[in-house]
Design goal:
The protein is of the alpha+beta class. It contains 8 helices and 15 strands. It is globular.
Length: about 260
Amino acid sequence: MQGSANLNVMIKAARRAGRSLVKDFREVENLQVSSKGAGDFVSRADIAAEEIIRSELMEARPNYGWVAEESDAVDGKDPTRRWIVDPLDGTTNFLHGLPHWAVSIALEHKGEVVSAVVFDAAKDELFVAEKGQGAWLNQTRLRVSDRRKMIESVFATGIPFATRPDLPATLQELARLMPQTAGVRRWGAAAIDLAYVAAGRYEGFWERSLNAWDLAAGVLLVREAGGLVESLGGGNPLVDGDIVCANAEIFEIFAKTIRNG
């Protein structure tokens, strides 16, 4: 696709950060890792990637605001625009040598995401979207799956780990959903899960207890690929911190199953 100037800046930042992460990924056993809590780690690679992205984006658009996983939020001189960044979505995968992680960058304008990049550097898959311009993977237009039957559909989620309080609710949701489907996947990178829904690889995705940087880019990808997206309560996922999304054909029954059976 022929992207806007902002999208091109985002792609450049994502690719540069991705190259840095791939280099560190090859030496993952030597990374210096500090714990932020059970199952939630931060590494030199993560912080370095965020610094690269921040440098690229803020140099190009110094008046925009900034919110990201590993640093404090910044209010920009332009209050209508801000970058929403996850420099390494799938950190635990990264640190365990699993090649399933991504750079996620979104641009929000007046409370709405208008540009998105999810870069799966390990597989060289660049997912991009702009409001009204569709979603794309490496120059190929994306559409959500057209499957209409739950029993033929594959879904993705994030299963809470360690002592997270939302585990019981997720297990109940899985118990309701799994007998109706062709399978449920748990890959540990919400940005890629959403990109895969946009690409038709999954029919749908849901998860609780997420942050704006986990969701922002992926939400636009799914919507621009023709999918439906809501929070579990029917509101804005970026505000509510949870999500349910699917193709239009099965969204209603999928969302109903997840929400209350």
